[in-house]
Amino acid sequence: MNFLRRSRKTETSTAPGATTYEKHHTRTKSNKAGFDVNSGNFNRRPSFGQWIKMTWLDILTMAAMGAVGLGIYNADPAPSRSFPITFRDGEIVYPEFAYPLRTEIVPIWEAALLASLIPIAVFLLMQIRIRSFWDVNNAIIGLLYSLITAAVFQVFIKWLIGGLRPHFLYVCAPDLTRVQAAGGEYLGQGFGRIMFQRDICTGDRAQINDSLESMPSGHSTAAWAGFLYLYYYLNAKLKVFSNYHPAMWKIIATYAPVLGAFLITGALTIDEFHNWYDCLAGAVIGSVMATSAYRMVYASVWDFRFNHIPLTRHTPFSYGAGQAGAGGFETAVFTRKAGWGYEEAYGGAPFDAAHHLRGAQTGFNSGIHDDSHGRHLGRREGDVEHNAALPPVRTSPEENRYRMHSRSLERKAVNNRGSGVL
């Protein structure tokens, strides 16, 4: 397929006396500049040292939170829960906790791997067209924010609150001789002495500990933290809910992760490892963390104008107010329909009142290029953010014809690369 082919980069030189437009659009070694926070174009790969400098604190925090979560996960449950067992006639008080212990349909390690590796694989696959280091960086780091924070959140609740699993009485295997005396009187605690604690259990200690930590569901938490995050990413990159009518396959692809989260969650009620309210609590935790994490690393969750733009650590995103443009991330979308995915020389939020020439003509983003003495700073070569609100450079008729011809060739090249792809 054409869009899988990388265009060949040739080394050329700009002839003396060439126009400003020709100099700007000629491919040279100097145009392959590295990441520079002062350039205005942030969609460039940093050096490893630059990346570490901006990311080391997150790496350290994630490692620390992972260690905390693992420690709590392996700790014994903190609360000592009371529970009834049978009525006087031998009937089980809560049969919903008397299911047999079965093998999990989806083990917890598998749920965690699916919720992490599938989204990462999709992020990388999308780079076939997006080709942005910071997009895949923000996507993966945001996913880790979601999964790790949700996991630590839910293990704290499991440890300090917990609840009885549907197979609790089966793995507890209570000593019924300690439940009632020969005369039928209960030997427990509380009103009527009908409540007991885990000291009456005779089953495996590890299984009893696990059966006391049912709420919230870790499977459900991981599934929704990972797959709902992937849903937000696909919606942003495919522009499913935006300003044009997309193809049907896009909504199918976008909601496939949500279906996966539902299937993993529902399986827990089939193998009787969780109650429905455990699954609901886990889904809420995972969904909240996925939404929060996505918003931390991208400019919006639902606003179609911005939700594809990765946020940087060093420069605030202007949302069409103040400096215009998207820091070079205008192309950080997978779709190429309805004008999406193409760089603009004049900025603002895509398709809003401050976008392109409309912004300059209607007074958006004006008056931002004066220094402290009121002197105009002028244009900067290759600085989209700085030059966005400036009026177009006046050119000769010959340069205008060259520009129109160049744009025509660029559109044809884009159409050829995207032929046959929705």
Structure description:
This protein has twelve helices and no strands. Among the domains are: 80-297, no CATH class; 319-370 and 382-394, no CATH class. The longest helix is centred in the middle third of the chain and has 28 residues, at 133-160. The protein is an all-alpha fold.
Order of helices and strands: HHHHHHHHHHHH
Taking the alpha carbons of the first and last residues, their distance comes to 12 Å
The total beta strand count reads 0
Shape: elongated
Residue share in β-strands: under 5%
Give the biggest beta sheet. none
- The level of helicity is 40-55%
Please, what is the average pLDDT?
A: 77
Note poorly predicted spans. 1-31, 356-372
Family: Belongs to the PA-phosphatase related phosphoesterase family.
Subcellular location: Membrane
Keywords: Membrane, Transmembrane, Transmembrane helix
InterPro entries: PAP-like, PAP2/HPO, PAP2/HPO_sf
Précis, in short:
The chain is mostly helical and 422 residues long.
Any key phrases for this structure?
422 residues, single chain, PAP-like, PAP2/HPO_sf, membrane, mainly alpha, transmembrane, 0% strand, PAP2/HPO, disordered N terminus, 12 helices
SSE layout:
Layout: H1 20-25, H2 48-73, H3 108-130, H4 133-160, H5 168-172, H6 205-211, H7 218-238, H8 248-270, H9 276-297, H10 356-361, H11 384-387, H12 397-417
Helix pairs in contact: 2-4, 3-4, 3-7, 4-7, 4-9, 7-8, 7-9, 8-9
